[in-house]
């Protein structure tokens, strides 16, 4: 199953920092896959996410730029007040169209566009959060032949987002944060 | 890259719209365009983009509704207040040296940015000598811009933005509230022209001191971005100013050398002298 993974998308909302702290620092230097992350944040804040995780991670961490080509070993955070999408040619692009689930960036928007670009090569990960964003996106990931991982709801700071994601598709797998981290390492061939 | 049936159909739909109606979306970024056209497809009850293509080719009434999906129309007055503060504090002192001014808001949608600048210019005593051009490809958006009517429930956000942008007056001085709407003062658009113009296919139409084009280029691919920035370059006077969206930059543009960062954090550039 691990063969052929090409990219990882992660969505998180309430409780995101703690959850991501258990996952992103586990990725080793030289990790081959690009990782795109949507965290729900207030629109008027300069995001500190990239800075925060840059200090904790062995991989590169940055805020996504429009039309930037994806490279492995890099974590791209969606900037506040913009949706983050993946183009068919595997460049990132930004959009300021309507909020989805009262959020911009939205997990669904990232996952759906990435599923289109990567098909079976995409791994979608839904972490803690207090709404339903990500459920539709995870369904798109699985429908395109990709892999869906969801934080076990009982271990999440806010269970609604994992619950909605699991309800959206029976093939999504519920895992603890440690298991998700181990799985992502394995997908990169660096278990 | 991708030759999925759906992507072939999407390209053919854009081709059909271009051939039949001369709206050119072929250089737009695919990911968000596809997302919005999927919503349109559902709204029109079509299973495929090919069915939507059939509808748009044979029923001219479909295109105006489709344009609402093809063009993103999300804005607010004084969106990104720090940008308007930079215009006010850093660009306006330069603009004050010109006896007459022209300002082009490219991709103005329903006019929020034009009204923001018109209010700012009035507060700075520049409005009497300034012509504003608000251009967009969407005739419905231009009509709304011309009307200057916004939902009243958006006004608290507009007011807060205006304050953060260094507003020197009360925003309520510029509109009348009635029946759930705020109607902006006609005097703000006395020297404003709202007009149809496409960054994908039209040419330069005026020599201007300031171009404001924010959160438009992100919807274009690299070639179309270059075309649009080329129009701005050709339109601007020497030492004129170009303002972009918070996440847009000229770093990778074919015209990067023609501009110098002026207020880099707020994405304001200045056109260079002789090249």
What does it look like?
The complex is a heterodimer of chains A (191) and B (275). Chain A is of the alpha/beta class and 191 residues long. Chain A has one domain (8-187): 3-Layer(aba) Sandwich (Rossmann fold), CATH 3.40.50.180. Chain A contains six helices and nine strands, in the order E-H-E-H-E-E-E-E-H-E-H-E-H-E-H. In chain A, helix 1 links the parallel strand 1 (7-12) and strand 2 (35-39). In chain A, helix 3 (107-118) runs parallel beside helix 4 and helix 4 packs parallel to helix 5. The longest helix of chain A is centred in the middle third of the chain and has 12 residues, at 107-118. Chain A is globular and about 35 Å long. The two termini of chain A are 14 Å apart. Chain B is α/β, with parallel strands linked by helices and 275 residues long. In chain B, strands 6-2-1-7-8-10-9 form a seven-stranded mixed beta sheet. In chain B, strand 4 and strand 5 (181-184) form a beta hairpin. The chains are: A alpha/beta (191), B alpha/beta (275).
Percent helix of chain B, as a range, is: 40-55%
Mean pLDDT reading of chain A: 93
> Which two chains touch over the largest interface?
A-B, 24 and 25 residues
For the record, the CATH class of the largest domain in chain B is Alpha Beta
Assembly annotation: heterodimer
CATH architecture of chain A: 3-Layer(aba) Sandwich
Note the run of SSEs of chain A as H and E.
EHEHEEEEHEHEHEH
* Major beta-sheet overview of chain A: 7 strands, parallel
In the CATH scheme, the class of chain A would be Alpha Beta
**Domain module count of chain B:** 2
Q: What is the residue-mean pLDDT of chain B, rounded to a whole number?
A: 95
How many β strands of chain B by DSSP?
A: 10
Query: Compute the gyration radius of chain B: what is it?
Result: 19 Å
Structural class of the helix and strand makeup of chain B?
A: alpha/beta
The largest sheet of chain A has its strands arranged as 3-4-2-1-7-8-9
Rg of chain A? 14 Å
SS-derived structural category of chain A: alpha/beta
